């Protein structure tokens, strides 16, 4: 959309106390309404404080405002909310050198050299995405080769699949790795042919020998990372995120941004464990800070691990690893202890549970504790990937919100089939069953584990197919949700899951004016078209925070 | 002062967005002016945002304001600023059981029992102030006696002099103390007569065996402690303090109070070391937060210890301990490293230096580093107690502010004489010399090490005598300062030392309306009268935060 007057751009950009109200018209607006149905509109009036004053439909008379802006027919939807992301991880990833587009070792070395020159202040050069097969190298690259690009600072670069890392000589020195270093169980230090001298590549568990030497990001790097994360998310149409596993270092970065008026993403924070929760928030959740930009809502609890590494806790053995059921990272007694401690302070627990046993224990723990802590608790299970069908009704029965990531289903389906076998997939990524049984779904991405793109998430949610349309007709298509449900999962329901309803998530009077202008209608576009949605502009609290070139 | 209208009380108490401007007249006002001289006035006009709009003198016509309040002839001075305090320590101390007024063991046990009943949520009962001599007991009390008051929670109570502690049986169990426990060097575990069984009292270094078992305060205790500290300080007429040694836990308590509008004390924070500095503030000092209520200014660095324990670092041996010169807690190289790191981020260093060698090294370190970091740095030395006269000119030469505590001089003079001998006191508590040589002084209390009462500080500053008027004529009276200098040290100069000039510290237009109404004129009262000053009301940012009964 173009501005009618330069003055209006300035007025909004400066966010002056005398900011004026504004009419944005000529849009094809849609939002989830209070009845859970899509509601359409043609114009918004935004108050000078960045909240929505009026939502107009065709035929309504536009009020007199200080400024008017022409939406030029773009589709306006609520700012998308990622109900499960790692904000700082997204930013740190974005600051990292990406080698995935390099086609030869020399091209990679040039790119590494240039990145190091552009980032002189960084004590380590970190990156990812290299692939010696794509380079046609026929072998792993070496530390000596990496030294040709950067020798005076440690460098560590992960392979595209994350299962190997490539270090330069200085990085190995700093990590204390030499010819005497032994490969750990489950890992391998690559050696120079015919010697014990490490050649520079560390496979699987041996990666830890290097990664433990990498210093934690400094505060100024975290500040940069947050700025990057905001850019990445706003570019994807995301205006708010639940931050899963917030540390005090993360929180301080959010506050620094808030204090200087640079926080443009709304962050619903879930602390990385009870000590961080207490250190950050004290005895109770924080208030909403910075005009609803930041709140410490609750606590993230890891009940089990992941399916890929067979760390998810199952009721029965892994189909591809008999005798192994995975295991709880947080045992039943400790889980209940943490839940009680959280509930006593009105903190909202968000329990990571992937496997059937983990989901059952989380659901049962909530049932046991909820009696002692009545009221509006909004217990959350994060992922809820593989649930015993017998346990599915407990989401609704126990008032547990399922916070799920549609793209995990399309990324992981083959792995899930391998881990569980064909007969134990009835409660896998069971979005529709949870809704049908009266439960509530919030949708997210788990970025940076997956791309934060919510349009990919919306498309996966309504199709159960991946970007290539595979498998045809969708994987266990009975668990698809409809378009309204999918959009609600990424807007109003994600807000509800973070105690933010009424503040943001819908385009209704009194809510913050968080919206996205896009180039197609998500209720009408084909799934393939939906994935190609172009975000034109992203607005948070009545201020434009992203505009496409 | 009484309010003319109840409505005005309500308007201010509610601090509503529609707060009005107010005239406070009929006061005998005084402030340090921009020329460093006392400036007198008769009325203030406070804007609706809590800043001073006008300062009126006799004959000025009062403007039209929404409210008018009659000062009833009280003396109005700027809110006093404590340039060196430990805010959380004051609060935690105030929450601790005080046994100093008990006259018998039974009276103490009754008081302990009652305190435990009133503080059911506290996991430990902590206190101080007992004195078996005053009780006429003729021996130390025992754990068994303490168990009669509280047996089901650990109890630990420090003796009045801090050199012994009294535990109950459960506290010793929790600390793992039993008949096999050995007394450490420099300490003694008292034993039941004729046995090795600990009797419950731990002397000097043995105290550590108990105190290490006491859990750190929980966030809700810190929140309570901050509220208490604010009460204690406002009751004493203090509206702002430099917090020396702020930890992340302290900072979070300050922010929680700020976030909910409960921060009434202005806190200029100096982090407890480089890691805390970086964790709290990131790469740069925080902005002024909550309408100038909170800022992370810089870093507290402990260069040496204290005179009493002979930990202060001297150029020559202790007169009462030949061969001992004390020692630096932070060596010269590390000091310079920290100063550079702080200066790179524009953090203000506040260097604790007590002894002659420590002060010389701090002054020299600043001289070496200041060349590389020009600009308005306001390097601070905290305490600056015993300075080699040859080094005194370096305060002014190197632009170092001396942040000193007048009451330390009156409390410590006999100890200083013992530690240094009569011939090495020329640069001891040398307030006037530092001023005469062109340096700047900020005054504080070091509370809770000393009482936070700034009127005791003002009286000590202008007399060099203690509350009993000892020694007659003052100790080294040539180092007295005049009344203007003393008041400036506790107001405008303390603000300058915290980069707060223009925000608070003076009663001038544009500054925050932080003031105290008192019952006598500090420029005219005798020193003894000055010590008896009664604080009638304390106001911060145009809001009353304390009123005497």
TrEMBL record, chains A, B:
Entries under CDD domains matching the protein: YtcJ_like
Single GO molecular function: hydrolase activity, acting on carbon-nitrogen (but not peptide) bonds
Residues covered by the Amidohydrolase domain: 70-546
Keywords associated with the record: Hydrolase, Signal
Keyword Kinase: no
Stored SUPFAM superfamilies: Composite domain of metallo-dependent hydrolases (SSF51338), Metallo-dependent hydrolases (SSF51556)
InterPro entries: Amidohydro_3, Metal-dep_hydrolase_composite, Metal_Hydrolase, YtcJ-like
Pfam families (alphabetical): Amidohydro_3
Leader sequence residues: 1-20
Protein name in the entry: Amidohydrolase
């Amino acid at each position: 959309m173009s501005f009618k007057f330069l003055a209006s751009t300035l007025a909004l950009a400066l966010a002056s106390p005398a900011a004026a109200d504004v009419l944005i018209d000529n849009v094809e607006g849609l939002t989830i309404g209070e009845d859970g149905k899509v509601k359409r509109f043609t114009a918004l009036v935004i108050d000078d404080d960045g909240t929505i004053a009026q939502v107009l439909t065709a035929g309504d008379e536009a009020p007199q405002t200080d400024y008017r802006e022409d939406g030029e027919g773009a589709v306006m939807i609520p700012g998308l909310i990622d109900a499960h992301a790692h904000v700082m991880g997204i930013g740190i990833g974005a600051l990292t050198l990406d080698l995935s587009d390099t086609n030869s070792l020399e091209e990679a070395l040039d790119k590494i050299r240039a990145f190091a020159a552009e980032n002189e202040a960084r004590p380590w050069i970190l990156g990812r995405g290299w692939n010696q097969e794509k380079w046609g190298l026929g072998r792993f690259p070496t530390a000596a080769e990496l030294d040709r690009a950067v020798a005076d600072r440690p460098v560590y670069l992960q392979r595209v699949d994350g299962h190997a890392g490539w270090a330069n000589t200085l990085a190995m020195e700093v990590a204390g790795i030499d010819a005497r270093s032994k490969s750990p169980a489950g890992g391998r230090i690559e050696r120079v042919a015919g010697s014990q001298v490490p050649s520079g590549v560390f496979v699987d568990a041996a990666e830890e020998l290097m990664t433990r030497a990498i210093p934690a990001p400094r505060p100024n790097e975290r500040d940069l990372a947050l700025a990057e994360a905001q850019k990445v998310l706003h570019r994807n149409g995301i205006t708010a995120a639940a931050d899963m596993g917030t540390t005090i270092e993360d929180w301080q970065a959010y506050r620094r941004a808030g204090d200087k008026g640079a926080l443009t993403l709304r962050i619903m924070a879930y602390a990385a464990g009870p000590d961080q929760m207490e250190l950050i928030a004290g005895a109770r959740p924080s208030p909403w800070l910075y005009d609803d930009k930041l709140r410490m809502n609750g606590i993230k609890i890891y009940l089990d691990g992941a399916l890929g590494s067979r760390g998810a806790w199952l009721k029965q053995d892994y189909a591809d690893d008999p005798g192994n059921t995975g295991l709880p990272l947080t045992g039943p007694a400790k889980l209940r202890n943490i839940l009680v401690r959280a509930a006593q302070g009105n903190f909202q627990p968000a329990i990571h549970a992937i496997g059937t046993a983990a989901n059952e224990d989380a659901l049962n723990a909530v049932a046991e504790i909820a009696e002692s802590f009545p009221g509006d608790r909004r217990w959350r299970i994060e992922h809820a990937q593989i649930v015993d069908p017998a346990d599915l009704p407990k989401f609704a029965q126990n008032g547990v919100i399922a916070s799920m990531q549609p793209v995990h289903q399309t990324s992981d389906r083959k792995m899930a089939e391998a881990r569980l076998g064909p007969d134990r997939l009835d409660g896998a990524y069971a979005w529709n069953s949870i809704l049908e049984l009266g439960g509530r779904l919030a949708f997210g991405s788990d970025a940076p584990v997956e791309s934060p793109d919510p349009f990919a998430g919306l498309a996966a949610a309504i199709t159960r197919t991946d970007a290539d349309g595979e498998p045809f007709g969708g994987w266990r298509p009975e668990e698809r949700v409809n378009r309204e449900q999918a959009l609600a999962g990424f807007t109003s329901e994600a807000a509800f899951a973070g105690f933010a309803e009424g503040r943001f998530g819908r385009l209704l009077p009194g809510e913050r004016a968080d919206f996205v202008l896009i180039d197609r209608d998500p209720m009408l576009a084909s799934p393939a078209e939906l994935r190609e949605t172009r975000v034109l502009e992203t607005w948070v609290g009545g201020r434009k925070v992203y505009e496409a070139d």
